[in-house]
Amino acid sequence: MSLVVENLTIDHGAIRAISNVSFKVAEGQLAAIIGANGAGKTTLLRTLSGLKESVSGTASWNGQSILEKKPEDLARSGIMHVSDGKSVIAELSVKENLALTGLWRKDKKDVAAATAEVVELFPILGQRMGQMAGSLSGGERQMLAIGRSLIARPKLLLLDEPSLGLAPLIVEQIFQSIKDLVKRLNLTVVLVEQNAMGALKIANEGIVLSLGSVVAVDSAQTLLNDPAVRTAYLGF
C-alpha cells in the first residue's frame, strides 16, 4: 500500500494554493511536508482527506482514488485526518471524545482494545477520562485528537500541525509518540508541519513546499544536512 499523489493542483478561492504537486509515501513510512506559512501544506492535507476539492491531478491510496470522497467514507476505508487539538469536542469528556470514533465500528471488542492501547500510549488520557476536553491543556488535547483517530485502526494518518502552539517539551513528546506509532502499528503518516527541524528528525522522508510547489523531496536526514535547503526553506 502507498499514497501516490500526481500533478495535484488545488485552488483556494482565487489563489492557486497547490500547483502540480507529486510525491509518493510507502506503507509504514513517515513523510513530513514542510514549508513556511502559506506554502499550501494544510490545503494539500485537507484535499487528501476529502475536505477540499482539487482542480486537477490524482491522489490514490492502495490504488484507489481518494479525491472527491467524503471524509467519513475515507475514515471507514482506513484514512484518518487529525487537525490540531482544537478538533476535539470541548463539551464532551475525554472518554466521550474517544468513544465517538468507535460508534460506527461493528467490532466493539476491538474498539475497547484500541481504546486501551490509546491510554497506554497516552497515559495522561487515562487519568482524565471524566474530565471535559475543553479543560485539557493544549498538549493533552492534541494527544486526545490523535488518540481518537487511532481507535478507527487507520492505515494512513494525515496529521496537520500537531505541534502548533505547544511548549517545546510537549512538542518533543508528541513527535516521539508519532514516531512510536509508525513503528508499532506499521502506520503510514503524512505529517504537515511548520516545525521543520522537529518533523524531519522523526520522518523517513521530507517534502519541501514553497508557494504551492514541491521544491525538494529527499530522505529527511539528507534535507536536514543540506545547507542550501536549510537556509532557503527551513529557516535554520
UniProtKB/TrEMBL annotation:
CDD domains: ABC_TM1139_LivF_branched. InterPro entries: AAA+_ATPase, ABC_transporter-like_ATP-bd, ABC_transporter-like_CS, BCAA_Transport_ATP-bd_LivF, P-loop_NTPase. One of its GO terms (molecular function) is ATP binding. SUPFAM superfamilies: P-loop containing nucleoside triphosphate hydrolases. It holds the Pfam family ABC_tran. One of its GO terms (biological process) is L-amino acid transport. Keywords: Amino-acid transport, ATP-binding, Nucleotide-binding, Transport. Residues 3-236 form the ABC transporter domain. PANTHER family: HIGH-AFFINITY BRANCHED-CHAIN AMINO ACID TRANSPORT ATP-BINDING PROTEIN LIVF. Belongs to the ABC transporter superfamily. This is Branched-chain amino acid transport system ATP-binding protein. It comes from Candidatus Nanopelagicus abundans.
